[in-house]
Amino acid sequence: MEGSIVMNGGEGPKSYFRNSKLQKIFLDGAMILLMNSIEESLDLKNRTKIFSIADLGCSTGPNTFFCVNHMIEAVQQKYDNTLCPDDEPEFHVFFNDQVGNDFNTLFKSLPSKRQYMAAGVPGSFYRRLFPRSSMNLIHSSISLHWLQRVPEGVMNKDSPYWNKGRITYAKSPTQVVNAFRDQFFRDLKDFLKARSEELVPGGLLAMIMLGRPEGTSPPEAIHIHTMECLGDAASDLVKEGVMGEDVVDSFNLPVFFPALSEVEQVLDSFKQYLTIERLQEIDAPIGRLDAQFLSAHFRAILQGTVCEHFGPKLTEQIFDKFPHKLESFMNTKDFARPGKATHQFALVKRKDVPS
Amino acid sequence: MEGSIVMNGGEGPKSYFRNSKLQKIFLDGAMILLMNSIEESLDLKNRTKIFSIADLGCSTGPNTFFCVNHMIEAVQQKYDNTLCPDDEPEFHVFFNDQVGNDFNTLFKSLPSKRQYMAAGVPGSFYRRLFPRSSMNLIHSSISLHWLQRVPEGVMNKDSPYWNKGRITYAKSPTQVVNAFRDQFFRDLKDFLKARSEELVPGGLLAMIMLGRPEGTSPPEAIHIHTMECLGDAASDLVKEGVMGEDVVDSFNLPVFFPALSEVEQVLDSFKQYLTIERLQEIDAPIGRLDAQFLSAHFRAILQGTVCEHFGPKLTEQIFDKFPHKLESFMNTKDFARPGKATHQFALVKRKDVPS
C-alpha cells in the first residue's frame, strides 16, 4: 500500500482515538453546514426503504460516529419536514478506511445504542468500495489531503522533481510543488470516478477538506508547514550525524492542500455525472494551539508512516524534536496570518444518467 | 458479551487463522451440497443488480473466503445456465462475527483479487445485523452450536440446573441437558427471526451445523465429549489442589449439538416465513485424528474464553493437560463409534410474505 497513511490504532495515550480533537474542531464548524446542505439537497422522490451512508477515511472514532449521527439526524429531519415521516428508512452505515486501519478498536467503540446497522469496509477510497448505485450519502472528512502516493520522481535524485532535504513541498521548487498538485488532481479524479459509480441517482457526496485560502500558492498552506516541522526535526538529526541525508531525501509525505478553485476545477470535469450543490471555504475557530497538543495530534496520524521508513529509534528522536520545531514555527508571522486554517466544504449530487 | 466465543486472533502459531483445518474438512464435504442447493433453489425471477451475501460467524479466514468463493461460483453458474448470463450482478459480501473478533487480521488476509466488494459486520448473529429485505444469500458454517449464553442456573449451586464439576452437559443429569437444549431452541429461533427479516423474498439461508446423529441423546454427541476433556483437565487441577472446585463449577461452555429433528422442529416454527429447501445429515471424512492437532484446534477456539475465567496461568496448565485427556478419550469406544462426526446441512428460502 504505497503511500497509505494509517492512524495510530488502539485506545492508548498515543492513539488516534485519544488524539483527534483537532479534527473535531474542524468538524464542529462544518456540521451545521453539512446538515443544512443535506436538508436542502436530499431528494425524497425516489426514496427507498434502506438508506446507505458511508464515511470514507473514518479511522477509529469518535469523530466518525459524531459525523454519522449528524447525517442521520439531517436525513430524518428531512423526512419529518416532508409528507413522508412514516416512511423513514432503515440506515445502513459503512465505515471505510485503509486495510491497515484499526477496525477492531473502531468496532469496539461503536455506540451500543445506535439507530443504524454498521459495517466496516477496508480499502483505499481512491478505488471502488461499494457496488454500483448502492449508496445514498457518502461523506469524507479531513482525509482527501492524503494522496494515493508520493508523486513520481520526488524521491529520485536523477529526476527533475527531486525534493532534496524536505519531506513536503513547503519550501520546494515550483516543479516539485506542481508534481504534488498534479498528483492531487489525479487522485481526486479517481475518488470522484469511484463515487459517481457508487452513488444512486440523486445520491449525495459531502466532502470536508483541509485546504488553503483562495488566492494563495500551495506552499503558503499552513498545514504543509506544520507537517514540514517534522522534516526540520529529521534534518537536525542529519546535521548531528545521527543519520545520513539520503534517509530524509528518500522520504516524503503523500499530502496536498488545495485551494477551492482547484477543487472546483476537478469537480467540473465530472459535470456530466455530478452537480455541485455547494462549494465554499469554512473558517475553523481553532484558537491558540499548544505545541505539545499539536505534536501529539500529528504523532497519532504520522507515527506509523514515519516509523516504517525511519525505524523505531529514529522515529522517537524525530518526535522528541518535533514539538520544539512546532513551537518555533508557531512564533512566526506565517503561522499568525489570518485565514490560515481554511478548510472547505463541497456537496455534490449524482445526476440521473448512466455512468 | 456474556457467553460469546471469540476465536484466537492474529496469524501466530496459536491463531484460529493457522488452526482451522478441521473446520475446513467439514466444509469440504458440505460445499458441493451447498453449491448444488443454490443452483436448485436460487430464484432469478426477481433478480437485482446487486447480490448481497453474508457469512455469519466468519472468524478470520481462510475458511470464510473458501465458502464465499463457492457461493459466488454457484450463483454465477446459475446465471450462466439460465437465459440471463449478461445480467450477472455485482457481489457485495458481508463478513460477520462478534465485536471481539480479529477483523484486522480478517481484512489483511482478504484475497487481493476478488470479484466482490467486502465489508465486515461486528455483532452477535442472534440479533439483527442488516436492514430488512437486504440480503440475497446468508450462510453460517460451524457456528450455530455456540449459544448466546450458558443457560440460566447452570452455574448457580442453588438452582436445580446446577452443573457441578463439569463444563459441558456431556455427563450431566437430564435437567441440565434439557436446559442446554432449551437454550439452543431459543437461540436458533432468535437467529431465524433475525434472518427472516433480513432476507429478501426468495432469498436463501444456508446453515452448516455441527450436530449429532439422529436417534441419539445430546450427551452422546462426540463433540461435547471432546470439549469436556477440557473440563477433565480442569478437574485434575482441582484434585491436585491447584485451584478450588468452585472455579470449575462457575464455568460452562455455551454450546449444544443438535440432532436433525431438533433443527427441523425449530425451522417448522418459522414455516409462515421460511420454506425448508433441504435438510440432511452429512458425513465428514475426518479420518484418524491426532490429539496434538485436535488440542491446537480447540485452543484456537477456546483459549480466550477459558483465559477470561481461569486467568493466564491456570489456562496454560489446563491446555497442558488437554492433549492427554483427548488422547485417553480417543482410545474409548465412544470415540470410535461410527457416524459420530455427523454434521448437518439446512437450506431455507424466505417466503414472499411480510414479516
Automatic annotation (TrEMBL), chains A, B:
Record-linked Gene3D superfamilies: Methyltransferase, alpha-helical capping domain, Vaccinia Virus protein VP39
InterPro entries: MeTrfase_7, MeTrfase_capping, SAM-dependent_MTases_sf
GO molecular function: metal ion binding; methyltransferase activity
Keyword vocabulary terms for this entry: Magnesium, Metal-binding, Methyltransferase, Transferase
Cofactors required: Mg(2+)
Name recorded for this polypeptide: OLC1v1032151C1
TM regions (residue ranges): none
Similarity comment text for this entry: Belongs to the methyltransferase superfamily. Type-7 methyltransferase family.
Pathway where it operates: Alkaloid biosynthesis
Keyword Methyltransferase: yes
Pfam families assigned to the protein according to its UniProt record, in alphabetical order: Methyltransf_7
Organism, scientific name: Oldenlandia corymbosa var. corymbosa
Cell cycle keyword on record: no
Gene Ontology BP term (one): methylation
